[in-house]
Amino acid sequence: MFVAISTGPFTHLDHLAPLCFLLEIPLIVTDECHRALGEKFYPMVDLQYIPLEDLTLEYIANHFDAILTCGKFWAMELIPLIEMLYGKKIRFIFSPHGNSDKEALLNRPVSQDIDLTYGKEGIPIGNIRYWFYKKHKAHFDDFAQDFFRSEKKTVLYAPTWETNATTTSFFESTGKIISTLSNSHNLLIKLHPLLEENDPAAFHRIIGMYEDEAQFILDFPPVYPLLDKTDIYLGDFSSIGYDFLTYDRPMFFLKSGGRLQKCGEPFQKAVDNTQKELSETRKKMYTDAFFACEPEKIKALLLQGLKNAYSS
């Protein structure tokens, strides 16, 4: 049986759902909240719930032949264990979950069994989330429409979370951003689900202080319904910045470092610059970051790769 399994943050749903839809495979979640989000936002996918405590090595060995996952270490850790304990070789397909600069800055690549990529290496999937969004645009836009009731231009601030490779701008900059932009713009703040873990007290204090001045977006996995109507992007190292390249619109940054910074300018106070001079830079960065998305070719390459793996 070929399945996808999501055990990470709920944002992984938005990366796995397009592939599950294309490949016509179930998407297994291990968290009740993720099940609710999955059923709400991705009804076109066969979503199944298995409690994490039931998803044992024995269960995996007995029920699955191939697993699609965003878990970077699944293949490295589970293939030898399952083969040693149960004499079974399961194929693990790794799906990237964001085309950000964090991995490049961290410089700690992990070898995969079967590797899906946004670029030309491995099995290229391109911007499959954008393809998926366009296929179900009316469905997804219905969830996002309440964020865009204002006639003001929309600024989407998408801070990343704190990692060994990058720092977040959220805790130090949110107050300044809100005081600068909330009166003149429709300000949306899409929060990374792992930000709360960095500093729970500060996270909730900031939301409580400013919830009447900006729209904080939580528990909202799909990103393209937001980006489609966003006029201006504001961020640090979030992969959402690469997703926003799809639209070739102005970008501003609160942190320095990484390739994406070439596509915008540092945030001072104003976000009025149309940045027309950066249009070609953004277009080139997009084509470098995302290979062409050819759904049927992706499906054929992946299934052929699995077939070859089993026959070898």
Structure description:
By secondary structure, the chain is an alpha/beta fold. The protein has 2 domains: 146 residues, Rossmann fold (3-Layer(aba) Sandwich); 147 residues, CDP-glycerol glycerophosphotransferase, C-terminal domain (Rossmann fold). The protein is 41% helix and 15% strand. It contains 14 helices and 13 strands. A 7-stranded parallel beta sheet has the order 3-2-1-4-5-6-7, sandwiched between helices. A 6-stranded parallel beta sheet has the order 10-9-8-11-12-13. β5, α5 and β6 form a beta-alpha-beta unit. α8 packs parallel to α10. The chain is globular. The model has no long low-confidence stretch (mean pLDDT 92).
The CATH architecture of the largest domain comes to: 3-Layer(aba) Sandwich
Instruction: Give the percentage of residues in beta strands.
Output: 15-25%
By helix and strand content, what is the structural category? alpha/beta
SSE run: EHEHEHEHEHEEHHEHEHHEHEHEEHH
**Biggest sheet statistics:** 7 strands, parallel
User: What is the CA-based Rg, rounded?
Assistant: 20 Å
The CATH topology label of the largest domain is Rossmann fold
Order of the strands making up the biggest sheet: 3-2-1-4-5-6-7
* CATH class category name of the largest domain: Alpha Beta
Number of helices: 14
